[in-house]
């Protein structure tokens, strides 16, 4: 009996000691993991992990940046997962910042002075639906965030979309740290899409990191040196003097994004006609020819068309879907973008004899199942879109060039000032006119950057709001021109879904046959193997009995 009691006591003591050791180990692991932790994100785009761009941005902070999160404690239960994700992401930011990021959570619910302050800051009260005592009701809450550094402040009014939070937050941190905000200029006054109309969404996105403005070349004006990147979005007409202004801007080291439409699209009549863009000869001199054709692709986006009282969704080969696998480039502009859509795009031809030693990167290609249309342009969706036999090939739709460029006007007379731009001298006799003095002519540029696409419509509000890849591509293109690549990788993770690729009829038949036969064959093989193993075991058992 004594022996039995002693054994029970020993077992109880061992169990207690093991429990204490296990608890101690767990406490040590938890303490270590607070500073040294890892986790595995199995999503393809690593959507639950902050990107390397963010880690680098906050890891290089050399002073304290304050983040104040204005978050109501009393939130509907369905908001709890979103709040947890926000807090988890902010904690990752704090850890990556090495002590240079101070995060404070504030509940403004019962603090009128703070609520008034938030109203001036642009952080509104949000109305959310709740259910209390079996009745539906509406409650007002705060879910905003502000980033402070010195006298600079940036605000995220509502934390309602975790998918875009990293991009917004990292962008706000970079914005408050900037000593100089660069200016992006959009050429205007020649039939280009309006910065406050067709390009309103692009304008708002750019203003998160840059100043934006329109640039006029009328009246013999030159392009201001403060413009870091000039966006030339399919002007309808330019005088030689205005082309000279663009050329000399580039020769002085300016960067440019040329968005060129070589076909005029009439969407109502569903027809197109060649349009002689005034910048074609300029681009051809720099080494890029925009062909007066349209690319069609079997790998295309669906488009909605009116058919009587109904809207019909049809595959539309004129809306080319550009996927990363078709382009195969490591250029940071597109290296992480899954897909984008270029509607009614023209192919580009690289003129090797004019590019010289410049670095050229192809940013967008159609798929191998694409072809071109030339001459008469029937844009109707109700036509036979069969690809011409043996005429399918990939076509370049966008490219980037960096290096030194020679002036288009080198060896040519400098264009005379436009006649309607003469102005009167204040002290001159009435009727006397002042002639604009010819500017200093620059023959060759320093190292600069140019991007050319055979399409300008892809950044208009109609398309950029539908296709995230379009937005990421254009913003990345501007960042590349300004040599600021810190947000490119984050945008790429939000740039659309993976794409199903066009397969040949033979490959489709093979996949269909595999799907039909694979499972029955595997079941049969498993049954045969299982039966063989059972018979072998029986034979071995019989031998042992003998």
Number of domain units: 3
Taking pLDDT < 50 over at least 5 consecutive residues as the criterion, the unreliable ranges are: 422-436
Q: What name is given to the CATH topology of the largest domain?
A: Rossmann fold
CATH class of the largest domain: Alpha Beta
Instruction: Report the helical percentage.
Output: 25-40%
Strand order of the largest sheet: 8-7-9-10-23-22-19
**Counted beta strands:** 23
Quote the beta fraction: 15-25%
Kindly state the mean pLDDT as a whole number? 85
The biggest beta sheet is recorded as: 7 strands, mixed
Instruction: Please count the helical segments.
Output: 14
Radius of gyration: 32 Å
What's the overall geometry?
Answer: globular
Architecture of the largest domain, according to CATH? Answer: 3-Layer(aba) Sandwich
| Alpha-carbon distance between the two ends | 48 Å
Assign the structural class, choosing from mainly alpha, mainly beta, alpha/beta, alpha+beta, or little secondary structure. Answer: alpha+beta
Question: What's the quick description here?
Answer:
The protein has 546 residues and is an alpha+beta fold. Helix content is 33%, strand content 24%.
């Amino acid at each position: 009996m004594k022996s039995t009691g002693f054994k029970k006591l020993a077992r109880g003591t061992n169990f207690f000691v093991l429990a204490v050791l296990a608890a101690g180990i767990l406490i040590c692991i938890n303490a270590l993991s607070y500073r040294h932790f890892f986790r595995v994100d199995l999503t393809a785009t690593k959507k639950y992990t902050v990107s390397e761009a963010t880690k680098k941005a906050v890891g290089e902070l050399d002073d304290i940046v304050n983040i104040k999160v204005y978050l109501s404690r009393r939130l509907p239960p369905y908001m709890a997962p979103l709040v947890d994700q926000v807090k988890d992401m902010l904690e990752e930011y704090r850890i990556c910042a090495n002590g240079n990021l101070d995060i404070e959570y504030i509940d403004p619910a019962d603090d009128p002075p703070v609520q008034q302050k938030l109203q001036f800051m642009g952080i509104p009260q949000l109305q959310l639906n709740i259910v209390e005592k079996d009745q539906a009701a509406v409650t007002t809450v705060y879910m905003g965030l502000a980033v402070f550094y010195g006298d600079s402040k940036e605000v995220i009014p509502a934390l309602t979309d975790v998918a875009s939070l990293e991009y917004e937050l990292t962008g706000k941190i970079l914005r408050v740290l900037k000593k100089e905000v660069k200016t992006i200029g959009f050429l205007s006054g020649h039939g280009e899409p309006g910065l406050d109309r067709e390009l309103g969404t692009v304008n708002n996105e750019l203003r998160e990191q840059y100043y934006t403005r329109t640039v006029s070349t009328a009246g013999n004006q030159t392009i201001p040196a403060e413009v870091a990147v000039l966006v030339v979005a399919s002007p309808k007409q330019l005088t030689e003097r205005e082309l000279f202004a663009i050329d000399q801007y580039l020769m002085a080291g300016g960067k440019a994004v040329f968005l060129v439409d070589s076909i005029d699209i009439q969407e109502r009549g569903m027809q197109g006609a060649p349009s002689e863009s005034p910048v074609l000869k300029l681009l051809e001199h720099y080494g890029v020819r925009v062909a007066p054709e349209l690319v069609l692709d079997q790998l295309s986006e669906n488009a909605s068309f009116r058919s009587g009282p109904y809207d019909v969704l049809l595959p539309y080969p004129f809306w080319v879907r550009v996927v990363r696998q078709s382009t195969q480039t490591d250029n940071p502009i597109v290296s992480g973008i899954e897909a984008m859509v270029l509607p009614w795009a023209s192919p580009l031809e690289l003129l090797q004899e004019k590019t010289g030693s410049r670095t050229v990167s192809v940013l967008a290609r159609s798929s191998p199942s694409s072809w071109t249309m030339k001459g008469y342009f029937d844009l109707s969706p109700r036509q036979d879109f069969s690809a011409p036999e043996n005429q399918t090939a990939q076509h370049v739709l966008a490219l980037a060039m960096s290096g030194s460029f020679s002036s288009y006007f080198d060896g040519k007379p400098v264009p005379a000032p436009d006649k309607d731009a003469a102005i009167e001298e204040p002290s001159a006799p009435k009727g006397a006119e002042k002639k604009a003095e010819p500017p200093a002519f620059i023959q060759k540029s320093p190292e600069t950057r140019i991007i050319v696409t055979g399409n300008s419509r892809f950044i208009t509000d109609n398309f950029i709001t539908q296709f995230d890849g379009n937005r990421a591509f254009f913003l990345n293109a501007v960042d590349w021109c300004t040599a600021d690549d810190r947000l490119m990788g984050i945008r790429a993770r939000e740039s659309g879904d993976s794409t199903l690729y066009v397969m040949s009829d033979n490959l489709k038949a093979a996949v269909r046959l595999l799907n039909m036969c694979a499972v029955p064959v595997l079941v049969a093989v498993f049954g045969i193997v299982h039966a063989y193993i059972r018979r072998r075991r029986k034979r071995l058992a019989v031998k042992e009995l003998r």
